[in-house]
Structure formats: C-alpha cells, structure tokens
Specification:
By secondary structure, the chain is an alpha/beta fold. Helix content is about 25%, strand content about 25%. The protein has one domain: Rossmann fold (3-Layer(aba) Sandwich).
C-alpha cells in the first residue's frame, strides 16, 4: 500500500491518480491532517505493508529501517515528485512492496540510495 504524505502537493497527487498509481493519502484518506513526524511511524505499523512516499528528509535515517514498512524520501523539486514516484515504483528493484519493505530510501535525479536491515552500508542504485 502506497501512503502519500501530506507534503506531496495536490497537483502531484492528481497526476499520480491520472497515471493509475494507487495510493492512500494521510490527510485525505486517513483524515490525519497535520500529523506530526513522530506519529507517522506508529501509524504505518498499523497498516499492511505500507510504503510512505514523502518529501520530508527527516525520514531518511538508518535507525528508522523496519521490516514492516518502507520509507521513501523524494529529494526532488516539488513539481517533479509525481514523475519520480512513478519512476521509482516501476523500477525493477522496487516494483513490489516485498522489494521495498525493510528499506529507508532516498529517490533523487541521480539515482536511488537506501538503507536496509541486511546491509551495513548505504546501497546505491542507478536509474535504468
């Protein structure tokens, strides 16, 4: 389940919807507008295999890695967020929730970097 943080603008969410990318919005679907960062992790743990799609750099921390969710931080211009979400979700290494779970990810124009429970170092992946 893709969970869109409220810091992803409405126009970008509309693009994702137009492209057929399924997601739930923290503010619109879960009625949790203004949810503080420290409440998001417990919230995600109540969901089934969530991937948080966010523009908040505070979520790209190794200590946040957990096998029951994925945190994906989009380090891109606000107007390119939907493009990079689509690109990330269609990447062969991250296409399924099983491939994303247990990772804290940074998605950027240069590529993807992530922390995982199984690696002691940051892993780098290039765009295909």
């Amino acid at each position: 389940m893709n969970v869109l943080d409220e810091n992803v603008t409405r126009d970008q969410a509309d693009l994702l919807q137009h492209w057929g990318i399924r997601f739930r919005s923290i503010s619109r679907d879960y009625h949790r507008q203004g949810m503080q960062d420290d409440n998001i992790i417990p919230f995600l743990l109540r969901l089934k295999q969530p991937t948080l799609l966010t523009r908040d750099a505070d979520f790209f921390e190794r200590h946040l890695v957990h096998s029951r969710y994925c945190l994906a931080w989009f380090d891109v211009d606000a107007g390119q967020t939907a493009f990079f979400i689509r690109r990330f979700l269609s990447h062969p290494r991250f296409r399924t929730s099983a491939q994303r779970l247990g990772k804290v990810i940074c998605v950027a124009p240069r590529g993807v970097e992530y922390w995982s429970k199984t690696a002691d170092q940051l892993t780098h992946v290039r765009w295909t």
